[in-house]
Amino acid sequence: MAYGSTLDAGSSFEREIEVLKELDHPFIPNYIDNFKTEIQRETFLALAQDYVKGEKLCRMVREGKSFTREEVLSIFEDLLRILDHIHNLHPAVIHRDVIPKNIVRDSRART
């Protein structure tokens, strides 16, 4: 994840970092660290999280993967568990980018 050098992006990044530090769920990669770097006079903000070995859902679909009913239900159950967890935090966390490119099916998946 990289953000440009605007002030708004920086404050948004810092809010995201504070949320990620507090998240504790087996299907959410753990926060490790964050840092700023400057490349050709432009500041970039970087986030480090646990590596999740797996495949993005969008790639699986693009490559023609067919899912059984059970696999689809498993994916949705996992997503709903995550969303239920973050929505029940105080304050609640709203993930506004739940899309196939942000979903990784890893070795912990039941399918």
Topology:
Elements lengths: L1 E2 L3 H16 L8 E9 L2 E8 L4 E3 H6 L6 H19 L16 E3 L5
Antiparallel strand pairs: 1-3, 2-3, 4-5
Q: What radius of gyration results from the CA coordinates?
A: 16 Å
> Based on DSSP secondary structure assignment, what is the total number of beta strands?
5
Shape: globular
Helical proportion?
A: 25-40%
Write up this protein.
- This protein has helices spanning 7-22, 57-62, 69-87; strands at residues 2-3, 31-39, 42-49, 54-56, 104-106.
- By secondary structure, the chain is an alpha+beta fold.
- The protein has 2 domains: 1-51, 2-Layer Sandwich (Phosphorylase Kinase, domain 1), CATH 3.30.200; 52-111, no CATH class.
- Strands 1-3-2 form a 3-stranded antiparallel β-sheet, covered by helices on one side. A two-stranded antiparallel sheet has the order 4-5.
- A hairpin with a 2-residue loop joins strand 2 (31-39) and strand 3.
Describe this protein with a few key phrases.
alpha+beta, globular, Phosphorylase Kinase, domain 1, 5 strands, 2 domains, 3 helices, disordered N terminus, two-stranded antiparallel ribbon, 37% helix, 111 residues, 3-stranded antiparallel sheet
Provide a compact summary of the structure.
With 111 residues, the protein is of the alpha+beta class. It is built from three helices and five strands, in the order E-H-E-E-E-H-H-E.
